[in-house]
Design goal:
5-stranded parallel sheet; about 10% strand
Length: about 450
């Protein structure tokens, strides 16, 4: 567990990096930075770093101190690990902040910036409203930040009415979508429902079906390579991994009597053993279906539990759970395991910046969950009907996606920085979206 002195040292290091990077002077005429300049808004520590010092003291919520290590990547899976960490998705706000500090086109002049980044740890700040004593004040989430932006250098916000600002909230957008008028509150804060923040671009782990404020970006996996050589070494391992199972489900749920997709998956996997005993399994597989039981969160910070089975499976089933999206989608891609989706909200309508909608048919399989749960369609029948050559082609496409959905380690090698990762694509997407919004806003004034 991370100690309080260790946390304070980490906080001090973040302050040091902020001073070094944010005050650095970069040639304003640098061609590689044209239309890419970003200003990091200096926020009081109560909006980010102070929230970390109480990492073990949030009521009801788990102690997240261990996951602050390595600037939010978490502790290494073992002492000699160079790329694997026990990462927690909630720490993406820290990871993103740390990576922003080494973004090559930072400017200390907000008037010269194409976009302004708010290093606000809103997902962590939301814990006190979601699980703590301030649950009845969830409509206030974000108001203090807005007041600060209005009174500290107010011209920065007012120049474009917040249209040029972006922030990362490392939770599903639903957690910030409760109406301020809801009394009593049911679930979530009202950050995304506050008119004060209607104009900013919000990067979340999952967007709503009508994402006019937010854009979903990949969940962080546990793989954060620091060099190109380590990334390429992993790619070779994935490419040469022997796939002994046709399909795999890593997750919990599906044990209730109520019909749902997870129950159907478990039932089909259990019954697949009968098929295995009665006939020859096609295409050289030793088993048709494998299950990694991740009930009660036992897999969440332990990639060893699920990565090896994923490396040994051709297809990874990605059913929705409490919310449509799953971190497992990105764990599976990391293992070269072809995703099988059961609704578009799980990925296709979410991560368009990182996985274009028009390409989904090239690297994934889609089976409507209604056809499985109520229509009698068998997942195994569909997957066994895909030719092996097509499976190999789809896996190569999955491997092409891999560098785009992982977050490389901060301070990575120059060689690795030539490969755009999830952070790079998210920043590019934010700048493009902001320019589009500003253009629309300007046109409406003419």
């Amino acid at each position: 567990m991370a100690s309080r002195p260790g946390i304070l040292i980490w906080v001090a290091l973040i302050f040091f990096f902020e001073l070094v990077y944010c005050e650095s002077v970069i040639d304003p005429d640098a061609p590689e930075c044209t239309d890419r300049w970003i200003h990091i808004r200096r926020l009081p520590s109560r909006f980010n770093l102070d929230l970390l010092t109480n990492c073990s003291e949030y009521p009801v919520f788990d102690d997240f101190c261990p996951y602050l290590a390595n600037h939010g990547l978490g502790q290494k899976t073992h002492n000699n690990s160079q790329s694997w960490y026990r990462s927690d998705p909630l720490m993406l706000e820290l990871v993103f902040h740390r990576r922003m500090l080494e973004y090559p086109c930072l400017t200390s002049d907000p008037a010269a910036a194409d976009a302004i980044f708010l290093p606000y740890y809103g997902g962590i700040d939301a814990i006190r409203y979601l699980f703590g004593p301030e649950v009845n004040s969830s409509f206030e989430h974000g108001l203090e930040l807005y007041e600060f932006l209005q009174h500290d250098s107010p011209e920065v916000w007012r120049r474009n009415g917040g249209h040029d600002h972006f922030v990362v909230l490392a939770r599903p957008a639903w957690d910030f979508s409760q109406s301020p008028d809801k009394d009593p509150p049911i679930w979530g804060t009202s950050f995304l429902e506050l008119p004060e923040f209607y104009n900013i671009t919000v990067l979340t782990l999952e967007s709503r079906p009508w994402p006019w404020q937010e854009q979903a970006i990949p969940y962080p996996t546990s793989f954060h390579p620091p060099t190109l050589a380590l990334l390429e070494s992993w790619l070779r391992r994935v490419r040469h991994s022997r796939r002994t199972a046709l399909m795999l489900f890593a997750g919990g749920g599906g044990t209730s009597k109520t019909p749902n997709i997870r129950r159907s998956i478990r039932s089909e996997c259990l019954n697949s053993s009968i098929y295995e005993n009665s006939t020859r399994i096609p295409n050289g597989y030793s088993k048709l279906c494998d299950i990694v039981d991740c009930s009660n969160g036992i897999c969440e910070h332990d990639p060893i539990r699920y990565m090896k089975p994923m490396l040994q499976a051709s297809f990874c089933l990605q059913p929705p759970g409490d919310t449509p999206t799953r971190r497992s989608t990105f764990d599976g891609i990391l293992a070269g395991c072809i995703p099988v989706f059961f609704e578009d909200l799980t990925a296709k309508s979410q991560y368009g910046w990182h996985m274009p909608k028009e390409e989904f048919g090239e690297f994934s399989v889609f089976l409507p969950k209604e056809d499985i749960v109520f229509g009698g369609q068998r997942i195994l029948d569909v997957l066994m009907g895909i030719p092996r050559a097509e499976v190999r082609r789809m896996r190569e496409k999955v491997m092409e996606l891999m560098p785009k959905i992982l977050y490389r380690r901060h301070g990575s090698s120059l060689g690795l920085r030539t490969r755009k990762d999830a952070f790079d694509i998210a920043v590019e997407g934010s700048i493009t979206r902001i320019k589009s919004k500003l253009k629309i806003s300007f046109t409406s004034l003419i």
